[in-house]
Amino acid sequence: MKRFLSILVSLTILLLIYWKIDFVGLVQVLVNCDRLWMAISLAMVIPLTMFTAWRLQMLMPSSATNTSAINTNAANTNTANTNAADITQGRLGFLAANQLILAASSLNMVLPSKMGDIAKAYFMRDRGHLTGSLALSLVVFEKSCDMLSLLLWCVFGLLIYPQKDWLFWVMTVSVLTGLLLGLLLLGSVQFAQFFFRLAASVTPRSLGKKIVTLSHSWGEMHDYFWRDRTQLAKITGMSVFIWFLHLLQIWFFILALNAWAPFLASLALSPLAILAGLLPLTFAGVGTRDAALIAFYQPYFAAPTAAALGVLCTSRYVIPAIAGLPFLEKYLTLTRPKG
């Protein structure tokens, strides 16, 4: 029911957008696009998937000997539980990592709240790569790196964006606050425990239980990743680079539509539009992201072009989801009861 409502909200917003703008102009923009730049921009899905898969490999424990360090750290915190002794049972190959990323993209299109990424942890566990809560901890850390990298690029772009008014200053302060909060959550286990306790105390009981579960995984994640600062720096740098490629792809979309916006300005505007699409209101961000693109890019090109940009931004999620369909059955088989 929740998914149906999100689709309904997305369709309503799109209908309002296309009713107010020149829909024929939007189609014309897509028809008259630069074919070469369109091919280049859409093909960016390939390196993005490959780098994300490479990062997933980097996140995996390198050997079973790492388990002793995990056990030692977990024993020193109140997040330890019966699953704390997670053991690496096999390496995740590069091809398998790509297939897993694509299958999760397919699930993200049908499951609410990016639950396809959570299912990815289940797949890693049941395929014998990891056991217990470490798989969930890895996915939580991966998604945290993604969000913080997006906020980092957003802050960078907003600080150098030339056309600042009071609204952009409010957004700059808000995004910077979110970035600092995320860094504190990732860097201080004491602050994270305080934050999760506070969140659990002010939310409904059903949601509070989920927050407690997340706090356990967050503590284990902190223990696991902070013991190897060099590996942590590599994963962080890779995450920042991956999001640079995401934002570069959106700028390539603009060129493909025969439009123009300075790249540094796009570094400020496109992350804001992506953040708007993350609001839990619509289906895969469709609608809110399109409206944000039209509003933010208004100084550089007309609404039909911005709406066409919204269509292309949606393709960033649809193409990997379609590519993941051939691998989805293999992973869904793992969820079926055995025997």
State the distance separating the first and last CA atoms. 32 Å
Oligomer status: single chain
Largest sheet: none
Q: Kindly estimate the percentage of residues that lie in beta strands according to DSSP.
A: under 5%
Number of extended strands: 0
Structural class per helix/strand content?
mainly alpha
Protein architecture, described:
- The protein is mainly alpha-helical and 339 residues long.
- It has one domain (26-55, 93-273, 300-335).
- It contains 15 helices and no strands.
- Helix 9 (166-187) packs across helix 10.
- The radius of gyration is 21 Å and the shape is globular.
Summarize the SSE layout with pairings.
Blueprint: H1 2-20, H2 23-31, H3 35-43, H4 45-59, H5 66-75, H6 94-108, H7 115-126, H8 134-160, H9 166-187, H10 189-202, H11 205-226, H12 229-256, H13 263-277, H14 288-296, H15 303-332
Helix pairs in contact: 2-15, 3-12, 4-6, 4-12, 5-11, 6-7, 6-15, 7-8, 8-9, 8-11, 8-12, 8-13, 9-10, 10-11, 12-13, 13-14, 14-15
Question: Concise description?
Answer:
It is built from 15 helices and no strands.
